[in-house]
Amino acid sequence: MTTPAAVIVDAAAYARAVEDAVKASAAYYAGGTSALDDDAYDRLVRGIAAWEAQHPGQVLPDSPTGKVAGGAVEGDVPHTVAMLSLDNVFSPEEFTAWSASLARRIGHDVERFSVEPKLDGLAIAARYTHGRLTRLITRGDGTAGEDVSHAIGTIEGLPNELAEPVTVEVRGEVLMTTAQFEHANEVRTAHGGQPFANPRNAAAGTLRAKDRAYTVPMTFFGYGLLPLADTEAGPAGRLGEAAHSDLMIQAAAYGVNTTATTAVPGITAGTAERVLARVKEIAALRADLPFGIDGIVIKADLAADQQTAGSGSRAPRWAIAYKLPAVEKITRLLEVEWNVGRTGIIAPRGVLEPVEIDGSTITYATLHNPADITRRDLRLGDHVMVHRAGDVIPRIEAPVAHLRTGDEQLIVFPEVCPRCGSGIDTSEQRWRCENGRNCHLVAALSYACGRDQLDIEGLGHTRAVQLVEAGLVADLADLFTLTRDQLLSLERMGETSTDNLLAAITAAKGQPLSRVLCALGVRGTGRSMSRRIARYFATMDHIRAADAETMQQVEGIGTEKAPSIVAELAELAPLIDKLATAGVNMTEPGATPPSPAAGDAGDADSGSESVESAGGPLAGMTVVVTGAMTGTLEKLSRNQMNELIERAGGRSSSSVSKKTTLVVAGEGAGSKRAKAETLGIRLATPDAFATLIADYVG
Ligand SMILES: NC(=O)c1ccc[n+]([C@@H]2O[C@H](COP(=O)([O-])OP(=O)(O)OC[C@H]3O[C@@H](n4cnc5c(N)ncnc54)[C@H](O)[C@@H]3O)[C@@H](O)[C@H]2O)c1
Ligand SMILES: [Zn+2]
């Protein structure tokens, strides 16, 4: 099915649109198998609503407008109080207008708002009798839902027994976290089933499925608490009069999971401005959340305000959904490309039918590795759910398996390296050319000579090609034994450029170990990791003597990375020897080798502590640099800034998290600064920072 036109031209097109919408909606709520992504569905419904506004006499009874779940769902278990949908706003202006209209309706400004993430799952009502979970009911058409009590016990955050023997109904969202979704698809395909297209569909399909041979966990977040018919009058009255924020505290006290456990807890806000600030904060954190959100829900917090405002047939008047742009679209997987990276890694990349997500046109998506393709059961020509949030590289979430026509083709994996034709090492998840970094010697050389590694000016891509093609350089170490005559024999190499290049090569021999190590391009050791390894071990000999266990003493190297680093260094032994013989420095200035006891003292922390206890004004701090540097720091590259931070005893990082202690924010700092503010992390200007570490600059 192609995306239906949102502009409806005549009654026949209108009737078709209604039919499409009802079908999509039914599939969406029933098993999470709609043919449309949310954006396409929403455009269709907006088109229907626009046509109906112009032709009020011709509205079809099946029309989805004005109905909970588009009228496509039914149920047989009546709800105590209707479970409604939410109206939407899409901009600060629309929100301000909504809050003003709500103020007019209730006769005064809203006393207090509650602001929560809009969790992207499906609503359920969980009924507790004397503290025991007895029944789970879907939202259905809003007045009655479907009994899905068979799912009791599979939903994390929804305990079988509350902390108190109360009779209440808890309402909230059932969803799958990203990890639960990956797990669910793995289990499902292992049982011969088709993968779900995204976490929301997976939750919808899983919640309603009965008698499956396997169970997969889901997660619950409560956002409502109300009395049942059997609730005693006292508690029932109290629940009816409590503010939403107090109900959430109560729900958490009963043992129910709420957003309070997440990076985006529900808060209360006194003014519309504060609400909008919180909307911005939540939006900034969206890409990093372990579960999907599609907006922010804003509610009048006080029960009195809610009661005065009342509800319509589809949505309450005291709450609104501030929608965020869609981060998922359905498009087609046209092709899979296999690219060979600098170190010989052969990585697949999906070529997509171009699709616009949140303002950018997406044509490629990462696929990680061949196992990833197999696990996702992807095929060429598949419709795929593509996800893109923040600055993260777009990824294919899963195929939309129910849209398969049978014409999809299996994805063929390469049998030889697509660049050089050698064999492929498939022993690890990430495939690699057997020629390793020599598969792409030119790329490996230009990387090694780059500004952040050996910094050999005059040895860029073109020169590297020349040297390799002339047969003068067969590995990195050959650079250091090049003679003047050899260089002069090359085209476009005059006396001056030859002397300059030779001088740069000689100077490079004195680079610190961290940069030499980085130049080797060991998998998993970028610039900052190379620095940490070099500082920890101080000499190349100590690095090479380390086994996987010792390697793990370096901060950031875990059980997975350590053995592969050790193995690769062993593989590089001849090259490292050759470099040392050529006179390349193999020590890290200012670092002292770990004492022999550090590794086997049985105290895993002692090693990394000794690195940090080196002192300095940034000791124990994790620092992130963002935006343009000024003053004495102006000329420093990001890599040099990071080196500086580490010299001053700190740890440099490129992303802001709860672990960050300081963010140096220069001009033009954007999302990282915003995130630091949200998390309450200390900010410093480049000037203030320069003062703090003055002794280490230059
Ligand atoms: N792809 C399709 O074919 C298709 C079909 C139908 C509907 N849809 C999508 O579903 C949405 C509309 O459906 P809807 O009515 O189920 O949801 P909605 O977007 O109108 O919002 C209401 C729902 O938000 C949820 N919610 C999440 N966090 C909440 C919180 N903190 N407080 C209160 N409620 C919270 C609840 O489940 C509630 O029922 C649209 O975005 C539409 O795109 C898609
Ligand atoms: Zn190759």
From TrEMBL:
Pfam families for this protein: BRCT, DNA_ligase_aden, HHH_2, HHH_5, OB_DNA_ligase
Keywords: DNA damage, DNA repair, DNA replication, Ligase, Magnesium, Manganese, Metal-binding, NAD, Zinc
Entry's EC annotation: 6.5.1.2
Catalysed reactions listed for this entry: NAD(+) + (deoxyribonucleotide)n-3'-hydroxyl + 5'-phospho-(deoxyribonucleotide)m = (deoxyribonucleotide)n+m + AMP + beta-nicotinamide D-nucleotide
Domain BRCT positions: 613-698
Obligatory cofactor(s): Mg(2+); Mn(2+)
SUPFAM superfamilies: BRCT domain (SSF52113), DNA ligase/mRNA capping enzyme, catalytic domain (SSF56091), Nucleic acid-binding proteins (SSF50249), RuvA domain 2-like (SSF47781)
Positions contributing to NAD(+) binding: D38, D39, A40, Y41, D42, S85, L86, E116, R139, E173, K299, K323
GO molecular function, a single term: DNA ligase (NAD+) activity
Ranges of biased composition (kind: Low complexity): 597-610
Family matches, as CDD domains: LIGANc
Signal sequence annotation: none
Top-rank EC class of the record's enzyme: ligase
Chain residue ranges for the region called Disordered: 585-616
Family affiliation: Belongs to the NAD-dependent DNA ligase family. LigA subfamily.
Name of the protein in its database record: DNA ligase
Organism: Streptomyces lutosisoli
Lineage: Bacteria, Bacillati, Actinomycetota, Actinomycetes, Kitasatosporales
